[in-house]
Amino acid sequence: MIEDKQEGNAQTADKVAKEILDWGHAHGISTAFDRAQHLKPCPIGHSGACCKICFMGPCRLVGPDAEEKAAGVCGATLPVVSARNFLRMCAAGTAAHSDHARDMAFTLLEASTGEISDIQIKDEKKLRKVAGILEIPTEGKTKNELGKEVALKILTNFGQQKGELSYVKRAPKKRQEIWRKWGIVPRGIDREIAEAMHRTNMGVDQDPENLMMAAMKVSLADGWGGCMLSTDMTDILFGTPSPVHSTASLGVMKTDEVNIVVHGHEPTLAEMIVDVSTEKELVDYAKSKGAKGINLVGMCCTANEILTRHGIPSAGGFLNQELALMTGMAEAIVVDVQCIMPAIGQVQKKFHTKVITTSYKGKMIDAMHIQYDEHRAKDIAREIIRLACDNYPKRSGFGKMDSAAASPVVAGFSHEYIAYMQGGSFRGSFRPLNDAIMAGRIRGVAALVGCNNPRTAQDSFFDYLATEFIKHDILVVSTGCGAAAFAKAGYMTPETALEHAGPGLKEVCVAIGIPPMLHLGSCVDNSRILTIMTQMTEEGGLGDDICDLPAIGIAPEWMSEKALAIGVYFVASGAHIIFGSESPVEASPIVQAIKHDLWFKRVGAKLEFIPDARDILVASLAAIDAKRDALKLKKYEPGKFGAERVLMTMEDRRKLEKETAKK
Ligand code: MSK
Fold first, then answer.
1. How confident is the model at residue 6 (pLDDT cuts 50, 70, 90)?
2. Res 426: pLDDT
3. Which of 117, 127, 268, 612 lies 20 to 30 angstroms, CA to CA, from 64?
């Protein structure tokens, strides 16, 4: 498949998606997979050399010696133009995650004050933990009193004008000092986004270094602001994930049930649909229309949210959305915000599916709009389900209705659960993982995250890298569409360790009963990886900052500005990051050097763009081994480990918990 991709021969590594794509081709339906082949990217914009910030242009800075000689009408040079474009992408990504977080804060506030009755705080333990981090006294307060205070405190993080975001102090001490030294501690989320837009406006910041440092600052507002706050509030409201069994791929659609696909990012409406979809009245309504029941499935990050909390099957990531309609079995596809292709409005016309938009922020000309209102949350969810049921008899039989079965998946590895699985409720910690890394049983950790992009054969980079990593004893953690790719491929089961993992990783996975690829959730849940890295650092033995860890982050098939913001906040946090494509600042060697060398000098990490999956693998293994060497750890040799503590098995853990509970 990697070879196919390099030759441009394959569109997808997802077997079920391929069946549907082939069916679409036979029936004259084209999708993003086909459009990507016909519509070549503009090489000038693709490499960061096009400036369209004012209306004197667009100015395209090309030609021999463009770096030194080319300039826009205003005189902006290529490095300035590239760096400005880059900063704007990071600001847009930060805005998306953070606006999602803002909505979660209002939901938490109104759920706590009783203004909305359909949503209640589910995880009080996490609420109290978050309150503690926010320095809100918890003693004697009810969960709703505390929920209100937490929500109000979080809301101040958006409009705060001075000081530091509340969660900056969650980072390792050394890291915080680095941020302060370089003046990149985010003050308020909205302030950093507004300032980034101001600085990139015509005639303001004209220093590529300064612009690229601002990219780190705004992205930190995303990672340790929008994303982390959103993860915490979603856990508080809907529960902190722990492992659940489910299935994934477009094979989750059912021929004899009303299929409802929930797609997008904000989990609130999806949670309501999950809640009411089993109500007898609605199930009976579906039956009255000739269906056997209601089959709720997720897509993109909404899928990740409800898969990790409720085990709702995932129909896959970003690139599966048009294909879901082409099954001819989707009665409704319910969308909110982010990663929703306008194309589904067009594809819908060929099928009976109803595309339903639910956020005033994300309307679509060809879709039906039902505005979500948390004050009537469950009623709206019921209305949507009834509408889907009404649509069931309208199936025409046109579509690829007999796809292969879905793959099994175990998902729901929150950072809390990962600590728990290494020692139980009373001894949960990252010690065993650190010990296994120090002993060479686990060579390192790779985060394989981010989008799909139809310019890469869907999932091919993910599949190749993940199987190679675990073969080389590298534990894989994943979020977003990357996690969906592994789920669809059937890699996220403990059995995968037995079949594919190297000897050390296999032993660890078998001892604690986990897959070698852990599903951590949605895009905003990349913040869980920041927390894990911080906890590994604090556990000791692997240095005293994130940049010391033998770890790598990779977004091999990215496409979204959100992915770029995530990549940059990881770099600013000290993690070496590789993106699998050409660089969006390729045109400017000066800006390339800034994100590579200058960032490395200042924050101890760099951002690379490597278009070939095999080269990504080589670079990643070298980076992990270099970190091991710097820590003076035992040289990694497959099957040869140093001494370490004995890992607790699931059985040991239960026994210890029983004994402790008795005392
Ligand atoms: S959904 S941002 S395509 S990971 Fe979060 Fe997937 Fe990328 Fe959207």
1. very low
2. 61
3. 612
CB 503 within 8 A of CB 510: no
Decide if 268 is inside a domain.
yes
pLDDT band, very low/low/confident/very high, at 1 (cuts 50, 70, 90)? very low
The span from the CA of 54 to the CA of 106, in Å, is 36
Q: Identify the CATH number of the domain in which residue 91 sits.
A: 1.20.1270.30
Whether residue 165 is contained in a domain is answered as: yes
Q: How far apart are CA 625 and CA 26, in angstroms?
A: 48
Is 495 among the domain residues?
yes
The domain of 479 spans 445-662
In a shared domain, residues 220 and 368: no
Tens digits of per-residue pLDDT, 489-534? 999 999 887 889 999 999 999 988 899 999 999 999 999 999 999 9
Amino acid making up residue 294: I
Q: Are residues 261 and 189 in the same domain?
A: no
Instruction: Tell me the Cα Rg of the chain.
Output: 24
Q: Give the residue, out of 459, 481, 519, with the most ligand 1 atoms within 8 A of its beta carbon, to mutate for a pocket test.
A: 481
For residue 239, is it left (φ>0), alpha (ψ between -120 and 50) or beta? left
| Residue pLDDT, tens place only, 135-173 | 999 999 999 999 999 999 999 999 999 999 999 999 999
Per-residue H/E/C for 518-539: EEEECCCCHHHHHHHHHHHHHH
Distance (angstroms) between ligand 1 centre and the Cα of 378 equals: 26
- Asked if residues 437 and 543 have their Cβ atoms less than 8 Å apart, the reply is no
Does ligand 1 lie within 6 Å of residue 339's CB atom?
yes
Q: Are residues 193 and 268 in the same domain?
A: no
Ligand 1 close to Cβ of residue 302 (< 6 A): no
**One domain, residues 211 and 140:** yes
Q: Which two tokens stand for residue 565?
A: 């913001």
- Any atom of ligand 1 within 6 Å of the Cβ of 481: yes
- The average confidence (pLDDT) of the chain is 94
Find the CATH number of the domain harbouring 307: 3.40.50.2030
The phi and psi torsions of 554 (rounded to 5 degrees) equal -135, 130
Q: Which are the contacts of 339, defined by CB distance < 8 A and separation ≥ 6? A: 264, 265, 300, 301, 318, 451, 560
340 touches ligand 1 (CB under 6 Å)? no
Q: Among 562, 564, 566, 581, name the best residue to mutate to test ligand 1's pocket (greatest count of ligand atoms within 8 A of Cβ).
A: 562
